[in-house]
Amino acid sequence: MRGGYGIYTNLIYSALDAQQMAGGPFSGSVTYVNAINDGVALFSFPSPFLTSGTTSVQNVAGVNPHLKTPYTQQWNLTVEQQIGSMGLRVSYLGTRSVNLVYRRNLNELPPSTSPFSSAEQPYNLFKNVIYADSGGTEFYNGLELAAEKRFSRNLTFSTGYTLAKDLTDTQDAGGGGATFGGQVIQNQFCRVCEKANNGIVPTQRFFGYALYSLPVGNGQRLLSGSHGVLQQIIGGWDTSWSWVAQSGQWFTPSFSGFDPSNTQTFGGRPDVVPGVSLYPSDQNVHQWFNANAFAIPGCPTSNLVCQDPANVGRFGNAGLNILRGPHIVNLDFGLMKNFKIREKQQLQFRMTMANALNHPNFSNPRANISSRGTVGTITGQVRALLGEPGPRQIDFGLRLIF
User: What are the sequence ranges of the domains in the chain?
Assistant: First the structure.
């Protein structure tokens, strides 16, 4: 039995300020949305900009110059036992991260029933003021089970299972570039409203691998007396097997076209309809989740996606990452043999198959409930593991060792 505890500082990536402050010390972008008024475009050439008015169109981004360094506390406890030739391991792992970087719109007004007015914004010369700041948190708890056994000189087998729960209010968006710091939180006055399942951490994950030498050839159970050319052909073949099965990735339902919070936030997370199951009984790629379990805020239950929602003055009450996508299953296979040429020379043959069974692993479905014709449908595949291809891929190789 063993345990451990540690504190580890995390990184503040240079991409955070390099992207936000490119050409600095100040930078920004302008976005214009065109419109038609009595058949005439609001913006048109040769003068594509408004000549008067106080419409705020300038977006700016900033980073707190006094960002705190994030750090993670980690603790674990492991119990191991050998039973015969099998080794068993049970582990608990917990981590707690604080001062993570998150982003919010400093120019966002509090939700209310009052119609939006840019004059009431703190910085009314700007549209969005996206600010990266410290304060995000993450809390992970995991139970890990593992077993390893050597059945014979030809076969070694190892397997494991992880049951995990990872809650955070700062979703990982890839660790670099303009998206560092996760998503811009929906309500800048309620970071706790973003607390949800970490989108990249599966709840359950099973893995295993095996190394198996074919029992054929010199010293093996079959054709053990073979020599010469026959031994070169049939003896010394080694195989490797690696498989993973895990629960699907988390994703979030959404809607578009309306601003129920009166904060100039069009779209976002919808309302959850009480008493309606999130998933249909006949779940498939054409209907992965129940779109009728969600409604545009302000729409009645008789018309979940209405065209004139009531002025509710709030964001939707659906949480982030409350839906789970399709599970992922993957098997990789390898075959290898060394052909001896001379005493110090040999030729190695290797064949590897990624996704050997060519099993389709589907991506998350379309989640916009406003698109009633496509919501809940799945049209693509996802990579089973980082760096591995989606469909089956077979590689052959020869290597001369001398």
Answer: 70-105+132-401
